[in-house]
User: Fold these one by one.
Assistant:
Number 1:
Amino acid sequence: MAGISATGQPKVKAGFGPLLEGFRHLPFGDLPAVEAAISPSTVAILVEPVQGEGGIHIAREAFLTGLRGLCDKHNLLLLFDEIQCGLGRTGEWCGWKSIAPHVMPDGVSWAKGIANGFPLGAFWVGNKPADDRGPACDLLGPGSHGTTYGGNPVACAAGLKVLEIIERDHLREAALELGGLLATSLRNANLPFVSGVRALGLMAGVQLDKAAFPAGPRTPALEVVVRSMEEGLLTIPAGETVVRFLPPLNVTAGEIEEAVKKFAAALGKIEKASEPASLPA
C-alpha cells in the first residue's frame, strides 16, 4: 500500500483506497519545487534516477546532487527506486551511478532484474543515524519486516547466480555498447510519428508525436505496442505517448537490428493506414 500510495500514476491507485497519507508529488527534475515542498514533517525524498513507467526520463546529475544536498541540509533520507534501472541495465550495478556516481543515497530498492524475472525483491539501507535508536540500517531487526516468503533460499540462489552471470559475461559493459547501438539505430531509422528517443544503457523510450498520430480507440503508445506485437516484437507502453525498449542484458547486435526493423514496419503500417485514399480521376 505504501508503494501504491507513493506512485504518481492514478491508474495504479484506482480501486485501492484508502491510501496512506503523507506523500506529495513534485515535478521530476525541479529542484526548487522539491525544496519549497519540504516541511517540518518531511522525512524523506523518493525518486527514480531513471523514470521507467514515466517514459524513460533520465535525471540530471545536478538534480540528484541537489537532492542529496537538500536531504543533508534538512536531515532527510534520500531514497532511490531502482526497480527498473538497477542491476546493470544502465551499465552500472547501481543505476544512479551512471548519472551521479558521487551521490550516495540512504536507501535503495531493487527487483525485476535482480533474479532475471524469478520473483525476488530487495532493499539496501545505509548507516546514516536515524534518531537516538541508532543508524537507519539497524531499525528493522529480525522479524520486524518479515513475510512468509522473505529470504526465500531458492529466490536468493537464483539472484546470486544471475549476479554471477552478469559479471562473468560482462553484461554491464554490453549494456552500454548495445544500448548505444539501440539508441542510435532508433534515432537514425527515420521513423514516422517519432519526435525523440531518450536512452541510458539498455533503457530506451521512444517519444511519439501525439498531434501527428492518427486518432483511434487506443493511445498512440498502446497502438504502436499492439502493432509491434503483430510484427513479432514485444515492447511496452509508458503513459500515452512513449514506447519502452527494455531488452534483456544478453541481447545481441543482430537482435537489436531486427527489433528496430520490426518497429519501423509497425509504424510504417500505421502511417500507411492513416493516409487518405486516392480515387482515380
Number 2:
Amino acid sequence: MASRNWRVTVVDLSNVAIGKLSQAALELNVNLDLIVGDVVGDAAEYKFEPTRIDLIDLFYHLDPNLFPKIVSSLKPGGLLICKMSLHWDPDGGLTGVRANPLGRNELPLLVPELHVLYHEERPVRARGVVEFIGRKSGDAAGDEVRRP
C-alpha cells in the first residue's frame, strides 16, 4: 500500500516486529508511520479518530472493545480486513475455556454497522480461524456477501 502512495500507519506491541518493518521500508524506499504500542485502554499510543481511515488490517488482536473504535474511524466505504483465532473443538463447537474473547459467528455481531463482504470460519489444527472483510456503508454497490 505504501508503494502505491497510501499513507500507512502500523501499530504493533512488538519492538522486534516494528524494527523489521522499519528495515524493510528502508530497503523498499517507502514511508511508513510505525508505532510500538497498543491501540486499546486509557494509555493507548494510537488514538482512533472518527471518519479518517480507508482501510484497517487487523490480525490476531482479540479485544472486542476495539471494534466500535475501528468502525467509527472508517470513512464511508472504508474496509476492515481481519483474521483472528477461535476456540474450536473437534465437533466444530466452542471449547469450555474462553481464553480467546471471540466465539464462533461472534465477529460480525461486533461490527453490525459493516456490510459483510466475506466471512469464513474454519478449523486449523487445535483451534479455529475467522477471516472477515466488512465495508462501512457509503459505497457498497455491487458487493457480494459470502458466509459459510
Number 3:
Amino acid sequence: MSQSLVELDGSFGEGGGQILRTSLALSLLTGRPFHLRNVRARRSKPGLQPQHLMSVRAAATIGQANVRGATLGSGDLVFEPGEVWPGKYTFSIGTAGATGLVLHTVYLPLALRTRAASELTIQGGTHVTTSPCFHFLDTTWHAYMQLAGLRIRLKLIRPGFYPRGGGVVQAAIEPCSELRGVRLGEVGTITSVTGFSAVAGLPEHVAQRQARRATNRLEQYGLKVHIQHEKWAGGPGSVLAVELPTQPAPSLFFGLGARGKPAERVADEAVDQVLAYLESGPAGVDPHSADQLVLPLALAEGPSEVRVAEVTSHLLTNVAVIRHFLDRQIACPATAGQPGEILIT
C-alpha cells in the first residue's frame, strides 16, 4: 500500500466533520497517512469537538495509528495508520456527540481489513441534530449497506438526546471480502407511510401532538398514514419519524425535540423533509443516504449508478475527499440542490 502523505484542507466544500471521518476511514483502508489542516473550519465551533475527537481516537485504536494533533479544539491533524484489528471496542464520547458518526468512521475498515467479527459499543447521542439518528441507521442506512454486501447489526441499548447524551448503541460488524456495486433508480410510487412519535422523560401528550400534526399534514398530501406512540426510558427528548416504503430500501425522515420547541415544529421538521423528497419525483435515494453511499460504492467491485433526490454539498465534498485517496472515476453531473446521479466506473 502507498505511504505517500495526503494533504487536505478542511475548509473546502462543506468544511465540516465529514472530511475528517472520510479521511480517517480511507487512511485505514489504503494505508496512506494524511495531514488535515483547518479542521472543520466552516463550523461555528471549528476544530475537533468531542465527537470528532472520539472519531480520531476510535480510528487510531482499531488501526494502531500514530496521531499528532488529537486534542480538543485542534485545527491541525496528522494521522499515520497501522494494521486494522478486529475486536470488542467501547468508545465513550462523553457528551451528546453523535454515536452514528463515530460508527461511520470505523465500520468500513473493520469490515474490509479484518478477518473476524467486531463488536462496538458507542456511548453518546443517539438522536441529535445534524447527524443520522439511530433509527435512520437501523432502517435506511442498514438496508443500503446490505445491498452493497455489508453485514452489520445494530442495537439501541439506551437513547441519548441533546444536551444530556448518555445513549448507548451496539454494532456487530462482520468481515466482508468484497463490496458490490449497485444500480439504484426510481424508488416506486408512495401512497402510504408509517412511523412513530416517541418521548423520553416527557409527558405523553407531546408524542400525541407530534403524531397528530404529522398525520394531518401527510393525509392532506393524499397519503395513508399510521404513526404509533412510544414512551422510552431516559431523556428528556422526543422524536417524530416517518418511514416511506421506497424500493429497494425504506427511507426514514425525522424531527427532534428541543427545550422550548413546540411538538408541532418537531413534526413539521420531519414532514417538510418527506414532502420535499416526494416532490422530487421521488427521483432516487434520499439526500442523507447519498453522501453515505458514495464511500462504500467507491470501494466496491464493479460500477455503480445511483439516482439521488438531491445533490448536497456533503455529497460533493465526500466525492472530493475520496478522489484524494482512491484512483476511481466518480462523477456527479448535477448542481447542488437539484436531483442528479452518482456514476462510479
Number 4:
Amino acid sequence: MSDLGFPLVAPAVHTGRTDLSLGYVPLTDAAPLLVAAAKGLFAQHGLTAVLAPAGSWSALRDRVAVGAWDGAQMLGPMPLACHFGLGGLAADLAVTATLGRNGNTLVLSHRLIAECGNRDWPLAAAALVPVLAARQAAGRPAVLAAVFPYSSHNYLLRHWLAAAGIDPDHDVRLVVLPPSALPDALADGTIDGFCAGEPWGSRAVDLDVGQIVLGSAQIWPGHPEKVLAFSAAALARDPAPALAATAAIIAATAWLAEPANLPEAIDILRRTALSAVPAPVIALALHQQVIRSAGDAPTALPGAILHSAAATRPDPAHAAWWLAAMQRWGHAPPDALHPTALWRPDLWHRAAAQTGLPSLPAFIDHPPISRSL
C-alpha cells in the first residue's frame, strides 16, 4: 500500500538506467512533477528523478532536444513544433501524459482596460476593437505577450481576438516573454497584457499592475494544456524509465485531485518552485479561482478543471487540434501531415496499470470552440 492510500503495483523492470532528468517551468501546472518528487512517487516506481527548472520554454525545449534532459513538462503544441523543427532544433518526442487542463489567465493593464471602459466578466474582445484601432492610428499598437510562439496561450489568445474580427498579426503586436517575467513587463509598460499559466496572472493582480479579464476555460472549457514528453529515441531504446515516471505522474495527479491535499500541494509548490509567490496566490489556481482585480473577492472559473487522473491520457486528437491552429496562423506547413504517433495513449495505459489506481474512466473532452483554434 502506498502512502497515498492505494495499492502500488510492482514497478517495471528496468533494462538500463533508473535515473531520469526532467525539466519544468515554474508554474502551478508543474505540480504533478513536483508532487511526485516530494511524495516519493518516483522512488516508489523505482526511479531516481532529478527535476530541473528552466527559465524559459525555449531553453527547456533545447535541453530536451539535445539530450541534456530525458524529458520535461512541455506546452501542448511544443512536440509538434519540435517535430517540424519550428523555431529551433528538430526532435521527435513521445507524449505519455497530459499534465493539466486549463490553468491560463488573460491579463490586461489597468490603462488598457480604462481606455476600453469595460470591466465585463469575462471580457469580450470586441470591447477592445475601437481602442486597438485608435492605438494603431496613433502609431502605438497594443502589445500583448504569450509565453512561447507554439503554445496554447498564443493560440487561445489569437482565437479570442480573431472571434471579434481583430487580426492578431496586424491589429496588435504579439511578443514572447518567459512566464515569470510577465508581471514586471506589465508593470513597466513594456506590454499591455498577456496570456500565461498561473500563478503569473494572479501575481500581476497581487502586485496591482493589471486585471484578469478571463480564464482560458472561458475560451475552450477543459482544453489540454501541458504534457509530459520524452525523447522518442531514448524511449525506443528502453521505455521502462519513462513508463515508471508516467505512472508516478498519474498517481500524483490523482493525489492533487483530492481537495484535502491542496494545502500540502500549495506548500510543495512554494518550497520547490514558486518561493517568490505568496501562498494565497498559488492557492487560487488550485482551487479553480481568480481574483480579477486587487481588492476583489475570489471568482470561480466556470468549467475549469486543473488536475484529474482520468484527464492525463494523451489523446492524438489534441495533436490534430493544435496542428490545425498552427496551420491556421501559418506556423506549420499547410500540407503537414498529422503526426499522431507523437501522442502515445498506449504508453499511458501501460503506465496507468502500474499505479494501482482503480480503473480510470474516460475523460470526455469538450470540442474546440471552432474547427481551428
